[in-house]
Amino acid sequence: MRSLRARVLLSAAAVLTLFVLLTALALERAVREAVIAAREERLQAQIFLLMAVGEEGQGGLVFPNALAEPRLTLPSSGLYAEVLSALGDPVWRSPSALGLETPTPLPLAPGQRRFERRTSPDGTDYLVLAFGVTWATGAVPQDYSFVVAEESTAAEREVARFRTSLATWLGAMSLLMLVGLVLVLRWGLKPLRHLAKELRIIESGRQSQILGRYPHEIQTLTDNLNALLAHERARQRRLDNTLGDLAHSLKTPLALVRGTLEEGKLPASTEAAIQEQLRRMQHIVDYQLQRARAGAQSTVALAPPVRVGEASGRLIAALEKVHRDKAVSVAAEIDARLLFRGVEGDLMEMLGNLLENAFKWCRGQIHLRSAEEQSSWTLCIEDDGPGIPEDQVARLLERGARADESTPGHGIGLAIVREICTAYGGRLEIDRSALGGARVRLTLPR
């Protein structure tokens, strides 16, 4: 199932249905117990009424024909009573029980009370209450058991009426709750629908980033998507610029080759010049295409965070091997918890270019340190080399200001770092280091 709304609705409906069923079962059981308890109390009251009107006679207990409960005098009324002797023999039966086979329990000891559900031989269910007493009004006290039985059909009908009413109300409440859930879910998912709408607008080219304000639960997602879109646009610009640089760099060599070929003769010196220019062209093509491939390797997926300390450590170890003859001393003070939230290749290219320049131009010392603020972090790289003149910093950071990008030096690496850094919404700053050389500060958002 691919619909989040359908998943939530079906899950909620299943949970609600289970809850309603369990609630209905619990309520029905509670009501059934309450009804049975009420019936037991009524039967106990009937026993007390019989005890109040009973009198000791010559043959045992006798009761008046007119009883307080009219149902005891009506045949097959559903309420029956009898009195048993200590031996279990019937002493008296109510007129309503004449001709019926009502369930008769065993006689009870004085003070003993028993309430139970019993079935008569004809299959009728009864609620039976028996109570043992000692009758001491005569010359010799006698033990009797008063028994009152009532058909359980009345109690079952009462429970059935409650069950019907309960099902009606719970069903109506469940329906209202589902309607309310649909409305709440529609309101709760409104930010996601708005986000999907904005993404469709971005896909159509009418918008460059997500502009809406969203709940904090998905604000991180929208921020990452905006950063991803900005990075992708910057990567595309870098690729376009690289191809433009490649075309521009090939103009002069191609013009020279074209002019030489138009001479019609190829003396040794001319052939050597052509070969030299062809080698230069090949070098420029290889270099620029390598840059283009490096930019194209950036994935459009949200990259996992990269530990800056670990990445810089790997680069320093590699550069120390390359410049082993220079005996460079590197002091790195980078917080182990510092994270770069982006493509690892971009971080490696930025740090690689900065560290390579530092190793190349330093006299023997390089110092790295990190600093964090609330919304950004900074990596500072210093060396004790000749540094970069202040009037050259702006020129080295501007695209197209260098005469030959294939010449090794600060210009190429810094331009690449600036492009990547800008793509992530950061900045690159260059000034004079306390060590005497250049200090490059790379600042990126957290």
TrEMBL record:
<keyword id="KW-0067">ATP-binding</keyword>
<keyword id="KW-0902">Two-component regulatory system</keyword>
<keyword id="KW-0597">Phosphoprotein</keyword>
<keyword id="KW-0472">Membrane</keyword>
<dbReference type="InterPro" id="IPR050428">
    <property type="entry name" value="TCS_sensor_his_kinase"/>
</dbReference>
<dbReference type="InterPro" id="IPR003661">
    <property type="entry name" value="HisK_dim/P_dom"/>
</dbReference>
<dbReference type="InterPro" id="IPR005467">
    <property type="entry name" value="His_kinase_dom"/>
</dbReference>
<dbReference type="InterPro" id="IPR003594">
    <property type="entry name" value="HATPase_dom"/>
</dbReference>
<dbReference type="GO" id="GO:0005524">
    <property type="term" value="F:ATP binding"/>
</dbReference>
<dbReference type="InterPro" id="IPR058619">
    <property type="entry name" value="PhoQ/CarS-like_HATPase"/>
</dbReference>
<keyword id="KW-1133">Transmembrane helix</keyword>
<dbReference type="InterPro" id="IPR004358">
    <property type="entry name" value="Sig_transdc_His_kin-like_C"/>
</dbReference>
<protein>
    <recommendedName>
        <fullName>histidine kinase</fullName>
        <ecNumber>2.7.13.3</ecNumber>
    </recommendedName>
</protein>
<keyword id="KW-0808">Transferase</keyword>
<dbReference type="GO" id="GO:0005886">
    <property type="term" value="C:plasma membrane"/>
</dbReference>
<dbReference type="InterPro" id="IPR036890">
    <property type="entry name" value="HATPase_C_sf"/>
</dbReference>
<keyword id="KW-0418">Kinase</keyword>
<feature type="transmembrane region" description="Helical">
    <location>
        <begin position="166"/>
        <end position="189"/>
    </location>
</feature>
<dbReference type="InterPro" id="IPR003660">
    <property type="entry name" value="HAMP_dom"/>
</dbReference>
<dbReference type="Pfam" id="PF02518">
    <property type="entry name" value="HATPase_c"/>
</dbReference>
<dbReference type="GO" id="GO:0000155">
    <property type="term" value="F:phosphorelay sensor kinase activity"/>
</dbReference>
<keyword id="KW-0547">Nucleotide-binding</keyword>
<feature type="domain" description="HAMP">
    <location>
        <begin position="186"/>
        <end position="237"/>
    </location>
</feature>
<dbReference type="InterPro" id="IPR036097">
    <property type="entry name" value="HisK_dim/P_sf"/>
</dbReference>
<feature type="domain" description="Histidine kinase">
    <location>
        <begin position="245"/>
        <end position="446"/>
    </location>
</feature>
<keyword id="KW-0812">Transmembrane</keyword>
